[in-house]
Amino acid sequence: MLLLSLVLAALLSFSMGALPHEDFLQCLSLRSNDSSTISSVIYTRNNPSYSTVLESTIRNLRFNSTNTPKPLVIVTPSRTSHFQATIYCSRKHGLQIRTRSGGHDYEGLSYVAKVPFVVVDLVNFRSVDVDVENRVAWVQAGAILGEVYYRIAEKSRTLSFAGGVFYSIGVGGYISGGGFGLLFRKYGTGGDNVIDAQFIDVNGRILDRKSMGEDLFWAIRGGGGGSFGIVLAWKLKLVPVPATVTVFSVSRTLEQNATQLILRWQEIAHQLPDEMNPDVSMFSVNSTQDGRKTILASFSSLFLGTIDDLLPIMQQRFPELGLSRQDCYEMSWIESILYFNQLQNQPLEILLNRTFRNPLGGQYYKIKSDYVKEPISETALNGLFSRLSDEEASSAIIIFMAYGGIMDRIPEEATPFPHRAGNLYKIYYNVNWQEQDNVNSQKYIDWSRRVYNYMTPYVSKSPREAYANYRDLDLGSNNVGITSYTQASVWGRKYFKNNFDRLVQVKTKIDPENFFKHEQSIPPLH
Ligand code: FDA
Known about the structure:
This protein is 30% helix and 19% strand. By secondary structure, the chain is an alpha+beta fold. A hairpin with a 5-residue loop joins strand 8 (194-200) and strand 9 (206-207). Helix 2 runs antiparallel to helix 5 (80-92) and helix 14 runs antiparallel to helix 15 (441-455). The model is unreliable at 1-18 (pLDDT under 50). Bound molecules: dihydroflavine-adenine dinucleotide (FDA). Dihydroflavine-adenine dinucleotide is lined by residues 59, 98-106, 109-110, 122, 141, 164-166, 169-170, 172-174, 176-177, 179-181, 225-226, 230-231, 358, 469, 518.
């Protein structure tokens, strides 16, 4: 008891004078059943590890400047009672909570807020329990996708989860926002492949699928993170993958007929077999011929099968690409994750490493997204290339990601993720830059806005759809204090289309006082 009091006293003495979070810290220690353990997972600004813990998963360094608002306290719960105490005490003392799993939020909303706030970081909540026989896995929300893939592969090389491409993404945010990846044309989104969850609500109740009910279970599988409560764990459905898969990547410049290939790709990519996830990445490079700028288009895909199975399909459906055996590599599914993360020849254990490497370039970036329902014209494509050749776009990358497959067959309302039948492909706009150029960040952000405006006539309309997990505050945001249905509908309909109204109903029921909120959270009806 004496030891406990000393620990708590030391903790409190770290907090400065009469700052508001002193009451919060006291509340945490009183509220927690096991104060000795909670003290070891609390980081105030005076704690020597505070910055290391905060920065450990700041993935977009745009939000790691001295001007970025920082949390008063970071809590890294190791028990469910720590979450309960943190929610209770944050409500009592008027602090907002930002929940962080993998920290990939493109606008930093899991660790930045303009009001006094606490970060709940799930780094200690990341066990992965794989049951091969029943083809399920219970995964705590703080695990990264790499940990999930690795733990499944430890037990089976012919099972996986329909997760994202980048291994460092947190399972918590990924599934909360829908989640697409290499297998999404075969098996659907991450959210489509969740069969149960453990969740804590604003009153500290720990709920599973049965006790939360189907409406809330529906909402948390794609309605966007940070709106309803905290997901503690997901029960994932594991899906079959063949022992051998094939990957390929074929690059062509404008001088090598890239424009005609992209025009053709638009027509056929969404009709390619569900076993593929075709995409085409475009970026500016110096031409090898005369050193002038050109655009390089890189056509790539995973194929769930062998090279011998793939080549005749490509020869029949997309002969113009001229895919040859030399462009293709066979490997196991788990090795394809390394391949797409540009980690070939690394040991599989690298997937357990939470250190972030962005294969797409600089770690300061701005992202946008669009959905395309009709092929865009050659003139429109040329305009896009011309913008990709701008000086600000020297590290920009634009990726067309084919839809179709099972996405055409899952109803729009099956989960909050509504982008299903009728989409040819999604566009991912990424402009990124290096640290030394961060003083000029606005010029890059302005570039991405110009490109987005330019694309208006060629992409989905009413609403102009966007992917919730590619968070973009340019689409609109809640006021800091109050959220309004009308205001939130502006971006809410882009992310969720008509599912937005059901999300609002769920929110109104589970969190009527709107405790869990951020700039793009779902508002309750007042
Ligand atoms: P983070 O921890 O930042 O959380 C994101 C949001 O979810 C925040 O609002 C947060 O509060 C909330 N949240 C987090 N944990 C929660 C929990 N346990 N309970 C409730 N709310 C929670 N997407 C994709 O679908 N496919 C892809 O291949 C990629 N690739 C990709 C690459 C890179 C480099 C980046 C930076 C991002 C992607 N994404 C992506 C987007 C990614 O899926 C999206 O940013 C996810 O929300 C990230 O989840 P994290 O847990 O990592 O983020």
